[in-house]
Write a structure and sequence with these properties.
10 helices; 2 domains; two-stranded antiparallel ribbon; TPR-like_helical_dom_sf; about 200 residues; single chain
């Protein structure tokens, strides 16, 4: 089955939640011609996720890797979103780590932002800071979403990790790549954590 027909057919089935039928179409595509494309896998993973079948989405990712097809950033993000919809934040972060460490996928800034946002939701400040450092080491450019999520993750953890995030933010601002100033506002003091949010960037 050609990619266009596959995508159209799956789109027509969006309200049916017929996971078995979609998987059958994918398997048929794998057996014919050049096989299934990353876009077909991404479509299938997204279909599973939107239907609440996060386990099915992860099965498709596993199958893709087992068949020697490297998941791209879209497939990874769709898999993470499938878990996020089901509030399986640890599983979503597992997808990120599998993609990075096992599947050898090329991760972009959007995928890193998704992972850092998940850290914020699950109050994993140190993990968020670690991903921010990793992102910088990979030569990816953090944006307002990145830093906002890091600060939210650090403050949500009830500790002092936000100081580390602010230090990294300062280093990124002065790195010479893009001369940006951050507009920061302080929130209320809650326990030992000062809630700080990045509300915008001013380019100079």
């Amino acid at each position: 089955m050609r990619q266009g027909k596959f995508l159209f057919t799956v789109k027509q089935m969006k309200n049916r939640r017929d996971f078995g039928a979609v998987l059958k179409l994918l398997h048929e595509a794998e057996r014919r011609g050049d096989g299934a494309t990353p876009k077909m896998y991404s479509c299938c993973i997204g279909y599973m996720g939107k239907g609440g079948n996060w386990e099915g989405a992860l099965d498709v990712l596993d199958r893709m890797h087992a068949l020697g097809n490297k998941p791209d950033a879209f497939c990874i993000n769709d898999g993470m979103n499938a878990c996020k919809r089901a509030r399986k934040y640890d599983k979503a972060l597992w997808v990120f780590e599998q993609a990075r460490d096992v599947w050898g996928a090329q991760l972009d800034g959007y995928v890193y932002n998704s992972a850092i946002t998940l850290c914020a939701r699950s109050k994993q400040g140190k993990r968020a800071v670690g991903l921010l450092k990793e992102m910088l080491a990979e030569g990816l450019s953090p944006d307002v979403v990145t830093f906002s999520a890091v600060i939210s993750a650090c403050c949500g953890g009830g500790g002092s990790d936000w100081r580390v995030a602010m230090q990294i933010l300062s280093e990124a601002r002065g790195s010479g790549g893009s001369r940006w100033y951050c507009v920061l506002v302080g929130g209320t003091l809650c326990g030992v954590c000062l809630a700080i949010a990045v509300v915008g960037w001013v380019f100079v």
